[in-house]
Each structure stands twice: as C-alpha cells, then as structure tokens.
C-alpha cells in the first residue's frame, strides 16, 4: 500500500495524472508476473489467458 | 536553515545502474566510501552495494540504527516517468526495449524503497520504522558531491552526464549550504550520450570506453580536411549547438531512446563514410580523426555551458561534476578558456561519486547544517576513503600464501630502496594505506615506473596492463616541482586535468608529424619523459603533496634524489578489465600474473624472482571481461 501512496503523491506533485491509468495497468501486469512466478494462484493464470 | 550544527550520520548509496557505491558522512565529513566493484571484482558492478555498505559501517564504527538518514542518489519515480513518456513519444518504436525494461522496473526498481530496506536488512538488522530513507535527484547528488567537497564558499556548478532522471546537464549556483538550480537540459538531448554514441561507433564499450576515445583523439590530424569535414557533418546532421551550450540531438540518427544500442549504424555509415568499427578490428587514422572531431565538439559545448554558468552566477569559481567531468582533456580546454579563475572537479565525478553527493546533499540541504570549508583536509577526505590493510594483515596473508618477502621497518629506507629499483627501471606494484575512491589510483593502489624509458609506455600497455598500445600513462609529480615541468598545475591533486609539458623538455616535432601514421606517432620520442607524454605533448598529472600522501611523496622524493626527476608513471594497480586491486590477495595475484617486477605492500617487499611459480605466470591467470 505504501507504494500506491508514494505514486499518488508523486503524480500530484508532478501534476501528471494522465500517467495514472498507464501506471496502474503496468502495476497490475507486474503483480501478475510476480504472482505467476511464485504463488499458489499460478496454475490458474494460464487458464485466464 | 543555517546556523544548525548537529551530530548527523548519513549513508549515501548509488546503485542499480552502473558503478554502485556507498559512502558515510559524519558531521559533514566523508569518513568512508567504496565502490562495490572493488569487493565483488566485477568492473562497474551495478548491484546493490552490500559489501561497500558493510565496509563503510565497519570503518565508521556505526550500525544501521545509528544512522540519521540513508540517501539514494536518484529518484526512481521520476526516472520511470521519463521511461514511460519516452516510450510513448517514440511508439511503436521501442516496443522490444520496453518489454525488456519493464519486468525489472515492475518487480524491483519501482519498489526501490522496499528493495533498499530489504537489502540493508540483509547486511544487519535494524528498526525499519526508524529508518529515514531519502531520495535525492541524480544531478543534485552530482552538484552536491562537487560543491560541498570543494574549497569554495560560493561557486557556479555545472553537472554533465549521460542521463539522470530526465536531466542530462544542469547549471546551478552554490552558496554556503545551499544549491540553487537555474537551468537544466533534458533527455534525449545529452552531451554524455552523444559522446557515448561515438564511443560505440568507434568500437569501444559504452560507459567504459569513453577514456579510449579521449586518448585516441590526439592522434587525429588537427588541421586536416577529414577532421573538418567530420565536425561539419556532426554539427549539420547530428547536433545543434545553441549559444548557451544546450544541444539538440537529431533523433533520426540515434537509437538509445528506444533500443539497447546507441545509433543507427547504416545512417552513420552514410554520414561518415565508414562502418562501425568492430571491437577486434584495427584502429585506423579515420577513427582517430573522428575521435578528434567529437572531442573538439564536446569541448566547444562544455565551454559554451561554462560561459552561460559564468554569466548566470558571476562567480570566479566553478565546480564540475557528472561523467563528462572525467573528460580531463575537455577540463583542460575549459581551464584554458579562462572563464573561471578556479575550477574544481570532483575526483569521483561518475555515478559512484553520487553516493558521496547524496550524503552531503542530505547533510547540508535537507538537514540545513552549517557549511564546513577546509581546503586541505577536503582534498584528502574525498579520495583515500577505502579499506586499509596494515602490516599484520599482510603478514597473515604471507603465511597463507607462503610468499617470500623482505620486511623493511624504516619508511625512509623502504622508499630509498624502491626509489633505487624504479631508477633501475623495475616496475613496481605499490600498495599502501586506504584504497582510493573514484576511478583514479593516486598512489595507494598504483603501478609505478620510470618516466624516462622510451619503451615504458609500450611495455606497460602490452605486457603489464594488456591493453591497447596507444593509451597514455599519467605522471605523479612532487607538487613542489610541478610548475617547473608543466604549464598549468592548479587543482591537479586528483588527475582531473590534462596539461602540457613545458617546451624545454619536449623534443622538436617534425613539420609533417601530423601526416604520420598512428604507429609512427606512437613510436616517436616526443620528450625527455616519453612514458608520460601523450602524442600532443600533454599529460594528465597528479601533483603529490606531502600533506595528502606522505609515503608516496617520500618515495618520489627518494627517486628524485637518485635520478633528478621528480615524477613517476602512476597507473592503476590492475590488468585490463579488472577493478583496481583492493586486498593483498588481489594485489599479489595481479603481481604474479602480470609483468610487475616488485610488489611493495606496506613495509613488505616481494621480489618476483623469489616467488614460487614466478616462471609460470599463466598459473595465476585470472579472467576478466575486457573493457
């Protein structure tokens, strides 16, 4: 959660809200990459795509 | 914020890009600093500096809980913003590079706060809630590293490198404990990346081969049509140079913003009429001419930037930092332009020095501490900051390796002996005191040799260092005699400036010298001190002051008493591709593998012929990736 708070603070300071959707998508993708490599939900990720 | 004076302990870290390092600042004084490559033995190591941090904590006698702040030299979100915006601007170009870069950003670099805490926790346990983790902008770290370690209370500041977050060059003004930025140049327009592009095109490695381009440039024919044409082509097609020194790079010819290479090879071939040189291909005159063209343009840009800095600040002083500040030939041009009365260059101007800069920025700007200015100790504090090995440590090593040694307890007798060996043209591995911080060996981890021997440059390049034969060597000269031998010697304690050898020591250069081939120029004896005189009669000098390095000073003085010459060849103690040696083990291995005749570690003298396996150097051969 700390990272989201930091990113929000950064976007406010830089006034670059248009980057928010892109960063959120990339973070979700990143989470997927991490989870697919290490977690118990990995077997289900391939079936989603 | 001024007026405070509090006991603060700050750890500065640079990592994850290239040349990771750590430094600890206590009350505004850097008490320890080291580059990670010296411990891991991997040149330009970019990983988190575990061993460097550990060393800094040990040397300063602190724990992580004792620290008031940990400062990283870069703002990762700002860098990520640059990456995203650049990829969007160039899309769909760069998709492959984007896909390659994103995983490491999404799993590591974007979460740097957590990554750093995790890494520090591996070194030792600490109270995570108490840790004050700060991030400074990349160019602020460069500016702070230079200004706060300089002897000036106020100064113009110029930082120039490849790229930080967005910024590639910045102009600032420093006064007491504050730095105010006035101008910035942003990615993709970068003098550092322009120079790196030519480094790549000339067949050298980016981020390490820039020195070679600089060393190659004087072999170019200064007044030739070829160089003039190259400069014209560069200015008309690749780079627009503005009056204030800012530049605009024509991205039609570059690929660094969207790929893992630097330039469009085919377009550059059409521009310059030559193909990109492969690493193993011979260097020809045309390569030297191209190197000279880009070196001259770099100097022109730096001078224009400095002039803008002068008009903005009206200061007599300039503090220079960033990777480009390691271009000591451009520094010479800057000094000779007489824009500033005094120019101070941070000895570790590259990214490693960002660790020092980050710590100092936090101490003075964030914490608002009073500025402390001591010209002499400052010079010392920013260089000899690494691990030290005493006689008892070396003794233990000797036992483990069964090495054969002589022990000379008296320092004067030791220096007399080594001075005599140098006069007899022996090549000495010289290991003493604290390891240097930054890219230069300044008399504590050095290979030393006679400057008057005509074949010494070739011998050192080919038999000792295993590197290209054209590369020059630098002299370490007693500060008291520097003016007698060289033209400009101010601020030369750290080998940051090139200067000309005085005319009386130069041998007349034939009228048609410029038309000679590179090999002919190399083989021609140009001065009374051929080992340290580059083809343009210049040398990158180190003025050795007794107060800064007493034993090294004493050694050169003993050599002077025997030969009448107050200088020695001083090159870093390593072979090609190897980080400078740090420990006695590494020094001994380098000594046994290379053609070094005698190794001197503190008060112990190792003669090659007395060592076991001295006639089997291949037995000691280590493998380093060539730089």
Describe the structure.
The complex is a heterodimer of chains A (49) and B (627). Chain A has 49 residues and is mainly α. Chain A is 80% helix and 0% strand. The mean pLDDT of chain A is 79. Chain A has one domain. In chain A, helix 2 crosses helix 3. Chain A has helices at 2-14, 20-38, 42-48. Chain B has three domains: 9-149 and 346-382, Nucleotidyltransferase, domain 5 (2-Layer Sandwich), CATH 3.30.420.40; 191-343, Nucleotidyltransferase, domain 5 (2-Layer Sandwich); 386-620, Carbamoyltransferase, C-terminal domain (DHBP synthase, Alpha-Beta Complex). Chain B has an eight-stranded mixed beta sheet with strand order 14-24-23-15-17-22-18-21, sandwiched between helices. Chain B has a five-stranded mixed beta sheet with strand order 3-2-1-4-5. In chain B, helix 12 links the parallel strand 11 (317-321) and strand 12. Chain B contains 21 helices and 24 strands. With 627 residues, chain B is of the alpha/beta class. Chain B is globular. Chains A and B meet through helix 1 and helix 2 of A and helix 3 and helix 4 of B.
């Amino acid at each position: 959660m700390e990272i989201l708070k930091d990113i929000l603070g950064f976007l406010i300071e830089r006034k670059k809200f248009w980057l928010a959707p892109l960063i959120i998508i990339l973070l979700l993708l990143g989470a997927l990459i991490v989870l697919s490599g290490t977690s118990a939900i990995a077997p289900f990720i391939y079936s989603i795509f | 914020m001024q007026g405070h004076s509090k006991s603060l302990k700050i750890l500065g870290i640079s990592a994850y890009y290239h040349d990771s390092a750590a430094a600890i600042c206590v009350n505004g004084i850097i008490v320890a600093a080291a580059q990670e490559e010296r411990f891991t033995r991997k040149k330009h190591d970019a990983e988190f500096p575990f061993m460097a941090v550990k060393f800094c904590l040990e040397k300063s006698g602190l724990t992580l809980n004792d620290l008031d702040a940990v400062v990283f030299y870069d703002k990762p979100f700002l860098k990520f913003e640059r990456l995203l915006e650049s990829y969007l601007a160039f899309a769909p170009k760069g998709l492959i590079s984007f896909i390659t870069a994103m995983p490491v950003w999404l799993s590591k670099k974007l979460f740097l706060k957590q990554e750093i805490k995790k890494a520090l926790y591996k070194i030792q346990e600490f109270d995570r809630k108490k840790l004050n983790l700060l991030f400074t902008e990349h160019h602020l770290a460069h500016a702070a590293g230079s200004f706060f370690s300089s002897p000036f209370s106020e100064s113009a500041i110029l930082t120039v490198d490849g790229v930080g977050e967005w910024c590639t060059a910045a102009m600032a003004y420093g006064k007491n404990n504050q730095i105010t930025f006035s101008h910035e140049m942003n990615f993709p327009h970068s003098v550092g990346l322009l120079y790196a592009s030519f480094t790549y095109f000339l067949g050298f490695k980016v981020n390490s081969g820039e020195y070679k381009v600089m060393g190659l440039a004087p072999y170019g024919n200064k007044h030739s049509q070829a160089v003039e044409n190259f400069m014209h082509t560069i200015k008309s097609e690749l780079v627009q140079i503005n009056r204030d020194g800012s530049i605009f790079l024509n991205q039609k010819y570059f690929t660094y913003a969207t790929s893992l290479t630097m330039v469009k090879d085919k377009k550059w071939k059409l521009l310059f009429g030559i193909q990109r040189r492969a690493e193993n291909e011979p260097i020809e005159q045309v390569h030297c001419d191209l190197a000279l063209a880009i070196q001259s343009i770099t100097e022109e840009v730096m001078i224009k930037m400095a002039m803008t800095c002068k008009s903005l600040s009206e200061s007599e002083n300039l503090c220079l930092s960033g990777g480009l500040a390691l271009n000591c030939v451009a520094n010479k041009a800057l000094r000779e332009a007489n824009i500033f009365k005094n120019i101070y260059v941070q000895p570790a101007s590259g990214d490693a020095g960002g660790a020092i800069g980050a710590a100092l920025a936090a101490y003075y700007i964030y914490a608002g501490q009073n500025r402390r200015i001591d010209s002499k100790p400052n010079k010392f504090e920013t260089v000899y900051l690494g691990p030290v090995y005493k006689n008892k440590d070396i003794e233990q090593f000797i036992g483990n390796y069964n090495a054969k040694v002589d022990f000379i307890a008296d320092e004067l007798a030791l220096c007399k002996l080594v001075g005599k060996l140098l006069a007899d043209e022996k090549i000495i591995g010289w290991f003493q005191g604290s390891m240097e911080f930054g890219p230069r060996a300044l008399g504590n981890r050095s290979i030393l040799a006679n400057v008057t021997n005509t074949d010494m440059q070739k011998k050192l390049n080919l038999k000792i260092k295993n590197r290209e034969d054209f590369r020059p060597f630098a002299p370490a000269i007693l500060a008291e005699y520097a003016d007698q031998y060289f033209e400009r010697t101010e601020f030369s304690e750290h080998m940051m400036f090139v200067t000309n050898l005085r005319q009386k020591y130069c041998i007349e250069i034939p009228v048609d010298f410029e038309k000679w081939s590179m090999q002919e120029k190399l083989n021609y004896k140009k001065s009374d001190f051929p080992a340290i005189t580059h083809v343009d009669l210049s040398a990158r000098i180190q003025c050795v002051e007794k107060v800064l390095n007493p034993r090294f000073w004493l050694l050169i003085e003993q050599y002077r008493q025997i030969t009448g010459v107050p200088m020695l060849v001083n090159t870093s103690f390593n072979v090609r591709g190897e980080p400078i040696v740090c420990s006695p083990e590494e020094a001994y291995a380098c000594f046994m593998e290379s053609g070094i005749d005698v190794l001197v570690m503190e008060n112990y003298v190792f003669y090659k012929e007395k060592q076991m396996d001295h006639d089997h150097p291949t037995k000691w051969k280590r493998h380093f990736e060539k730089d």
